[in-house]
Amino acid sequence: MTTDHRHPVWELCEAGKRLYSQALLDDGLARDESDVDALAPCLLEYALLVPDEDEPGTLRPAMPRIALHRHLRDLENSIAVQHRHIGELADSFSPFLRMATSRLGDSVILLEGKRRIDESIDAAMRTGSGEMLTMQPQSRRTQQDSATGIARMSDFLTRGSRIRTIYTHPTRDDPVIHDLQDHFRAGGRVEVRTVDEVIDRIIIVGTEVAFVPGNPERTSALEIRHPALIMLLRSAFDRLWRYGRPYYDPLETAHEKVSDIQLRIARLMVFEGLQDKDIAAHVGVTVRTVAKHFAALADALGTTNRGQMGYMLAKAGLLDPVDEPER
Protein backbone atom coordinates (compact mmCIF):
# COMPACT_ATOMS: atom_id res chain seq x y z
CA MET A 1 0.00 0.00 0.00
CA THR A 2 1.39 3.41 -0.97
CA THR A 3 1.47 6.01 1.79
CA ASP A 4 0.67 9.66 1.22
CA HIS A 5 4.00 11.45 0.77
CA ARG A 6 2.80 14.93 -0.06
CA HIS A 7 4.60 17.81 1.60
CA PRO A 8 5.99 21.20 0.50
CA VAL A 9 9.62 21.48 -0.51
CA TRP A 10 10.42 23.63 2.55
CA GLU A 11 9.34 20.72 4.81
CA LEU A 12 11.57 18.07 3.29
CA CYS A 13 11.06 14.66 4.92
CA GLU A 14 13.84 12.92 6.86
CA ALA A 15 14.33 10.30 4.14
CA GLY A 16 14.55 13.07 1.56
CA LYS A 17 17.16 14.96 3.58
CA ARG A 18 19.22 11.81 4.07
CA LEU A 19 19.15 10.67 0.44
CA TYR A 20 19.77 14.17 -0.96
CA SER A 21 22.76 14.59 1.39
CA GLN A 22 24.08 11.20 0.32
CA ALA A 23 23.67 12.09 -3.35
CA LEU A 24 25.59 15.34 -2.86
CA LEU A 25 28.44 13.54 -1.06
CA ASP A 26 28.61 10.64 -3.56
CA ASP A 27 27.78 12.70 -6.66
CA GLY A 28 24.76 10.53 -7.34
CA LEU A 29 22.60 7.59 -6.27
CA ALA A 30 21.70 4.25 -7.78
CA ARG A 31 17.94 4.60 -8.22
CA ASP A 32 17.04 0.97 -7.49
CA GLU A 33 19.47 0.42 -4.62
CA SER A 34 18.53 3.64 -2.82
CA ASP A 35 14.79 2.89 -3.22
CA VAL A 36 14.25 6.63 -3.60
CA ASP A 37 10.95 6.16 -5.48
CA ALA A 38 9.40 4.58 -2.39
CA LEU A 39 11.26 6.38 0.40
CA ALA A 40 11.48 9.92 -0.93
CA PRO A 41 9.56 10.51 -4.18
CA CYS A 42 9.60 14.19 -3.20
CA LEU A 43 13.23 14.41 -4.35
CA LEU A 44 12.12 13.51 -7.87
CA GLU A 45 8.97 15.63 -7.74
CA TYR A 46 10.94 18.73 -6.74
CA ALA A 47 13.83 17.91 -9.13
CA LEU A 48 16.37 17.66 -6.33
CA LEU A 49 17.42 14.38 -7.93
CA VAL A 50 17.34 14.01 -11.72
CA PRO A 51 18.07 11.01 -13.98
CA ASP A 52 21.49 10.93 -15.60
CA GLU A 53 20.97 10.62 -19.36
CA ASP A 54 24.38 9.02 -19.83
CA GLU A 55 24.03 6.50 -17.00
CA PRO A 56 20.56 4.95 -16.89
CA GLY A 57 19.55 4.01 -13.37
CA THR A 58 21.66 6.76 -11.80
CA LEU A 59 20.23 9.90 -10.20
CA ARG A 60 22.30 13.07 -9.94
CA PRO A 61 21.69 15.80 -7.35
CA ALA A 62 20.69 19.30 -8.40
CA MET A 63 23.16 21.84 -7.08
CA PRO A 64 21.69 23.32 -3.86
CA ARG A 65 22.16 26.95 -4.95
CA ILE A 66 20.33 26.36 -8.22
CA ALA A 67 17.56 24.35 -6.54
CA LEU A 68 17.13 27.02 -3.87
CA HIS A 69 16.80 29.87 -6.38
CA ARG A 70 14.38 27.83 -8.50
CA HIS A 71 12.05 27.14 -5.58
CA LEU A 72 12.37 30.70 -4.25
CA ARG A 73 11.32 31.94 -7.66
CA ASP A 74 8.31 29.59 -7.61
CA LEU A 75 7.29 30.87 -4.17
CA GLU A 76 7.66 34.50 -5.24
CA ASN A 77 5.53 33.81 -8.31
CA SER A 78 2.91 32.15 -6.11
CA ILE A 79 2.83 35.15 -3.77
CA ALA A 80 2.55 37.53 -6.72
CA VAL A 81 -0.41 35.55 -8.06
CA GLN A 82 -2.10 35.65 -4.64
CA HIS A 83 -1.53 39.42 -4.46
CA ARG A 84 -3.11 39.86 -7.87
CA HIS A 85 -6.09 37.64 -7.06
CA ILE A 86 -6.74 39.46 -3.78
CA GLY A 87 -6.65 42.81 -5.55
CA GLU A 88 -8.91 41.53 -8.33
CA LEU A 89 -11.31 40.09 -5.77
CA ALA A 90 -11.47 43.38 -3.88
CA ASP A 91 -12.03 45.30 -7.13
CA SER A 92 -14.76 42.93 -8.29
CA PHE A 93 -16.62 43.12 -4.99
CA SER A 94 -16.30 46.89 -4.63
CA PRO A 95 -19.44 47.78 -6.65
CA PHE A 96 -21.43 45.04 -4.92
CA LEU A 97 -20.44 46.34 -1.50
CA ARG A 98 -21.69 49.80 -2.46
CA MET A 99 -24.93 48.35 -3.86
CA ALA A 100 -25.56 46.16 -0.84
CA THR A 101 -24.71 48.66 1.90
CA SER A 102 -28.30 48.89 3.05
CA ARG A 103 -28.69 45.11 3.10
CA LEU A 104 -25.40 44.53 4.89
CA GLY A 105 -26.47 46.91 7.63
CA ASP A 106 -23.67 47.16 10.16
CA SER A 107 -21.54 44.45 8.50
CA VAL A 108 -19.52 47.03 6.52
CA ILE A 109 -19.27 50.61 7.76
CA LEU A 110 -17.43 53.45 6.04
CA LEU A 111 -15.30 55.45 8.50
CA GLU A 112 -14.31 58.95 7.38
CA GLY A 113 -11.31 60.75 8.89
CA LYS A 114 -8.30 59.63 10.90
CA ARG A 115 -9.89 60.47 14.25
CA ARG A 116 -12.94 58.29 13.66
CA ILE A 117 -10.77 55.47 12.31
CA ASP A 118 -8.51 55.55 15.38
CA GLU A 119 -11.49 55.65 17.74
CA SER A 120 -13.03 52.60 16.08
CA ILE A 121 -9.76 50.65 16.22
CA ASP A 122 -9.32 51.62 19.89
CA ALA A 123 -12.84 50.43 20.68
CA ALA A 124 -12.28 47.13 18.88
CA MET A 125 -9.05 46.49 20.79
CA ARG A 126 -10.61 47.41 24.15
CA THR A 127 -13.43 44.90 23.72
CA GLY A 128 -11.72 42.30 21.55
CA SER A 129 -9.70 39.26 22.54
CA GLY A 130 -8.05 36.22 21.02
CA GLU A 131 -5.59 37.15 18.28
CA MET A 132 -5.03 40.40 16.44
CA LEU A 133 -3.47 40.35 12.96
CA THR A 134 -1.98 43.49 11.43
CA MET A 135 -0.33 44.15 8.09
CA GLN A 136 1.60 47.35 7.41
CA PRO A 137 2.95 48.25 3.92
CA GLN A 138 5.48 50.71 5.33
CA SER A 139 6.27 52.54 8.52
CA ARG A 140 5.08 56.09 8.97
CA ARG A 141 5.29 55.98 12.74
CA THR A 142 6.59 58.72 14.95
CA GLN A 143 7.72 58.27 18.55
CA GLN A 144 4.26 59.49 19.61
CA ASP A 145 2.62 56.86 17.38
CA SER A 146 4.88 54.25 18.98
CA ALA A 147 3.81 55.28 22.49
CA THR A 148 0.14 55.11 21.45
CA GLY A 149 0.73 51.70 19.89
CA ILE A 150 2.43 50.37 23.03
CA ALA A 151 -0.52 51.50 25.18
CA ARG A 152 -3.06 49.93 22.81
CA MET A 153 -1.18 46.65 22.53
CA SER A 154 -0.42 46.38 26.25
CA ASP A 155 -4.09 46.66 27.16
CA PHE A 156 -5.04 44.09 24.51
CA LEU A 157 -2.35 41.65 25.68
CA THR A 158 -3.42 41.83 29.33
CA ARG A 159 -6.48 39.77 28.38
CA GLY A 160 -4.31 36.82 27.33
CA SER A 161 -4.42 37.76 23.65
CA ARG A 162 -1.74 37.46 20.97
CA ILE A 163 -0.63 39.78 18.16
CA ARG A 164 0.91 38.87 14.81
CA THR A 165 2.20 41.60 12.49
CA ILE A 166 3.58 41.57 8.95
CA TYR A 167 5.83 44.41 7.78
CA THR A 168 7.95 44.82 4.67
CA HIS A 169 11.67 44.05 4.92
CA PRO A 170 12.76 47.74 4.92
CA THR A 171 11.06 48.33 8.29
CA ARG A 172 13.87 46.32 9.89
CA ASP A 173 15.90 49.54 9.57
CA ASP A 174 13.21 51.71 11.19
CA PRO A 175 14.27 52.59 14.77
CA VAL A 176 10.69 53.36 15.85
CA ILE A 177 9.48 49.94 14.73
CA HIS A 178 12.53 48.30 16.30
CA ASP A 179 11.85 49.97 19.66
CA LEU A 180 8.21 48.90 19.50
CA GLN A 181 9.13 45.25 18.89
CA ASP A 182 11.84 45.28 21.56
CA HIS A 183 9.26 46.48 24.10
CA PHE A 184 7.14 43.34 23.63
CA ARG A 185 9.82 40.81 22.70
CA ALA A 186 10.22 39.24 26.16
CA GLY A 187 6.51 38.45 26.54
CA GLY A 188 6.46 36.00 23.64
CA ARG A 189 2.90 36.90 22.64
CA VAL A 190 3.82 39.42 19.94
CA GLU A 191 5.23 37.93 16.73
CA VAL A 192 6.50 39.92 13.76
CA ARG A 193 7.57 38.77 10.32
CA THR A 194 8.69 40.69 7.25
CA VAL A 195 8.08 40.02 3.55
CA ASP A 196 9.10 41.61 0.25
CA GLU A 197 5.77 43.38 -0.16
CA VAL A 198 2.30 43.30 1.38
CA ILE A 199 -1.18 43.89 0.00
CA ASP A 200 -2.24 46.93 2.02
CA ARG A 201 -2.83 47.98 5.58
CA ILE A 202 -5.08 45.46 7.33
CA ILE A 203 -6.07 45.16 11.00
CA ILE A 204 -8.08 42.13 12.15
CA VAL A 205 -9.19 41.88 15.78
CA GLY A 206 -10.21 38.35 16.72
CA THR A 207 -12.85 36.96 14.40
CA GLU A 208 -15.25 39.84 14.96
CA VAL A 209 -13.94 42.91 13.14
CA ALA A 210 -11.41 44.00 10.53
CA PHE A 211 -10.28 47.35 9.17
CA VAL A 212 -9.03 48.02 5.63
CA PRO A 213 -8.36 51.30 3.76
CA GLY A 214 -11.38 52.91 2.16
CA ASN A 215 -9.35 54.86 -0.41
CA PRO A 216 -5.73 55.06 -1.63
CA GLU A 217 -5.04 58.12 0.55
CA ARG A 218 -6.20 56.19 3.66
CA THR A 219 -8.33 59.09 4.81
CA SER A 220 -11.21 56.63 5.11
CA ALA A 221 -11.50 53.01 6.17
CA LEU A 222 -13.97 50.15 6.04
CA GLU A 223 -14.94 48.58 9.35
CA ILE A 224 -15.88 45.01 8.41
CA ARG A 225 -17.95 42.73 10.62
CA HIS A 226 -19.11 40.27 7.98
CA PRO A 227 -17.81 36.77 8.96
CA ALA A 228 -17.10 35.66 5.38
CA LEU A 229 -15.07 38.78 4.57
CA ILE A 230 -13.11 38.51 7.83
CA MET A 231 -12.36 34.87 7.06
CA LEU A 232 -11.09 35.89 3.60
CA LEU A 233 -8.79 38.55 5.08
CA ARG A 234 -7.45 36.13 7.71
CA SER A 235 -6.71 33.58 4.99
CA ALA A 236 -4.81 36.19 2.95
CA PHE A 237 -2.81 37.17 6.04
CA ASP A 238 -1.92 33.57 6.90
CA ARG A 239 -0.70 32.91 3.36
CA LEU A 240 1.76 35.80 3.57
CA TRP A 241 2.69 34.88 7.14
CA ARG A 242 3.92 31.46 6.05
CA TYR A 243 6.37 33.10 3.65
CA GLY A 244 7.52 35.80 6.08
CA ARG A 245 10.90 35.99 7.80
CA PRO A 246 10.84 36.33 11.63
CA TYR A 247 11.73 39.90 12.56
CA TYR A 248 14.78 39.01 14.64
CA ASP A 249 16.17 36.50 12.13
CA PRO A 250 18.76 38.09 9.82
CA LEU A 251 17.78 38.31 6.18
CA GLU A 252 19.83 35.96 4.04
CA THR A 253 21.70 37.84 1.35
CA ALA A 254 23.18 36.24 -1.69
CA HIS A 255 26.27 38.42 -1.62
CA GLU A 256 27.97 40.36 1.14
CA LYS A 257 27.81 43.58 -0.88
CA VAL A 258 24.20 43.28 -2.03
CA SER A 259 21.35 43.37 0.49
CA ASP A 260 18.04 41.56 0.25
CA ILE A 261 16.12 44.80 -0.37
CA GLN A 262 18.58 45.79 -3.12
CA LEU A 263 17.99 42.44 -4.83
CA ARG A 264 14.24 42.98 -4.59
CA ILE A 265 14.58 46.41 -6.19
CA ALA A 266 16.85 44.97 -8.88
CA ARG A 267 14.30 42.27 -9.74
CA LEU A 268 11.50 44.81 -10.10
CA MET A 269 13.77 47.05 -12.16
CA VAL A 270 15.23 44.38 -14.44
CA PHE A 271 12.44 41.84 -14.87
CA GLU A 272 9.35 44.05 -14.61
CA GLY A 273 10.85 47.26 -16.00
CA LEU A 274 9.36 49.40 -13.23
CA GLN A 275 10.42 52.99 -12.59
CA ASP A 276 11.53 54.25 -9.17
CA LYS A 277 8.06 55.50 -8.17
CA ASP A 278 6.41 52.15 -8.92
CA ILE A 279 9.23 50.22 -7.23
CA ALA A 280 8.78 52.34 -4.09
CA ALA A 281 5.07 51.48 -4.00
CA HIS A 282 5.78 47.75 -4.42
CA VAL A 283 8.51 47.54 -1.80
CA GLY A 284 6.97 49.94 0.71
CA VAL A 285 9.64 52.64 0.84
CA THR A 286 10.03 56.18 -0.45
CA VAL A 287 11.34 57.06 -3.91
CA ARG A 288 14.38 58.59 -2.21
CA THR A 289 15.11 55.28 -0.46
CA VAL A 290 14.88 53.43 -3.78
CA ALA A 291 17.39 55.89 -5.25
CA LYS A 292 19.76 55.30 -2.32
CA HIS A 293 19.56 51.53 -2.71
CA PHE A 294 20.12 51.85 -6.46
CA ALA A 295 23.20 53.99 -5.83
CA ALA A 296 24.55 51.43 -3.36
CA LEU A 297 23.89 48.64 -5.85
CA ALA A 298 25.62 50.57 -8.62
CA ASP A 299 28.60 51.19 -6.36
CA ALA A 300 28.83 47.49 -5.42
CA LEU A 301 28.68 46.37 -9.06
CA GLY A 302 30.65 49.22 -10.57
CA THR A 303 28.00 50.23 -13.12
CA THR A 304 24.98 52.53 -13.32
CA ASN A 305 23.64 50.93 -16.52
CA ARG A 306 20.51 49.03 -15.57
CA GLY A 307 20.82 46.49 -18.36
CA GLN A 308 24.45 45.79 -17.48
CA MET A 309 23.52 45.63 -13.81
CA GLY A 310 20.88 42.97 -14.48
CA TYR A 311 23.34 40.95 -16.53
CA MET A 312 25.99 41.10 -13.81
CA LEU A 313 23.55 40.10 -11.06
CA ALA A 314 22.18 37.19 -13.08
CA LYS A 315 25.65 36.02 -14.03
CA ALA A 316 26.68 36.08 -10.36
CA GLY A 317 23.63 34.01 -9.46
CA LEU A 318 22.04 36.83 -7.46
CA LEU A 319 18.84 37.00 -9.49
CA ASP A 320 16.94 34.08 -10.96
CA PRO A 321 19.66 31.60 -11.92
CA VAL A 322 20.91 31.25 -15.45
CA ASP A 323 20.55 27.81 -17.01
CA GLU A 324 23.43 25.73 -15.82
CA PRO A 325 23.97 22.04 -16.54
CA GLU A 326 23.04 19.89 -13.57
CA ARG A 327 25.17 16.87 -12.92
TrEMBL record:
Gene3D superfamilies: Winged helix-like DNA-binding domain superfamily/Winged helix DNA-binding domain
One Gene Ontology molecular-function label: DNA binding
Annotated ranges, domain HTH luxR-type: 255-313
GO terms, biological process: regulation of DNA-templated transcription
InterPro entries: Sig_transdc_resp-reg_C-effctor, TrmB-like, Tscrpt_reg_LuxR_C, WH-like_DNA-bd_sf
PANTHER family linked: HTH-TYPE TRANSCRIPTIONAL REGULATOR TRMBL2
Protein name in the entry: Helix-turn-helix transcriptional regulator
Upper taxonomic lineage: Bacteria, Bacillati, Actinomycetota, Actinomycetes, Kitasatosporales
